[in-house]
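Translate structure to sequence.
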């Protein structure tokens, strides 16, 4: 079985490093981008099994990226996970079309179960 691939979109290097480490520990390969401008290029070279998307960026928002990703046919069926410190946005994220939601900071004890469920097609809505 081929390794699963994750795309992480977050402008904070520390958050990228932590999530990358947690995913790698679960055998998931990671492509990480820190800029909204890098998302299109990353998707030209990768069809991820899961996308982790922060909601807040200096020059845009995860909400806008979500709209573009949902319109991209190559991402049909790929779970897009909102992961953010803005845990009060969980209901808004659900209504906007995110497939799952994980609040920051990530809990390293809960994460293995969360990613396993997400990759098996289950929704995870946890803060």
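Result:
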């Amino acid at each position: 079985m081929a390794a699963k691939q994750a795309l992480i979109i977050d402008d904070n290097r520390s958050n990228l490093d932590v999530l990358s480490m947690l995913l790698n520990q679960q055998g998931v390969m990671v492509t990480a981008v820190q800029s909204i401008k890098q998302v299109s290029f990353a998707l030209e070279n990768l069809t991820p099994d899961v996308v982790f998307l922060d909601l807040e960026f200096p020059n845009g928002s995860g909400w806008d990226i979500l709209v573009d990703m949902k319109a991209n046919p190559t991402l049909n069926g790929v779970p897009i996970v909102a992961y953010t410190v803005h845990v009060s946005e969980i209901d808004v994220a659900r209504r906007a079309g995110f497939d799952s939601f994980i609040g920051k900071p990530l809990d390293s004890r809960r994460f293995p179960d969360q990613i396993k469920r997400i990759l098996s097609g289950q929704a995870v809505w946890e803060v």
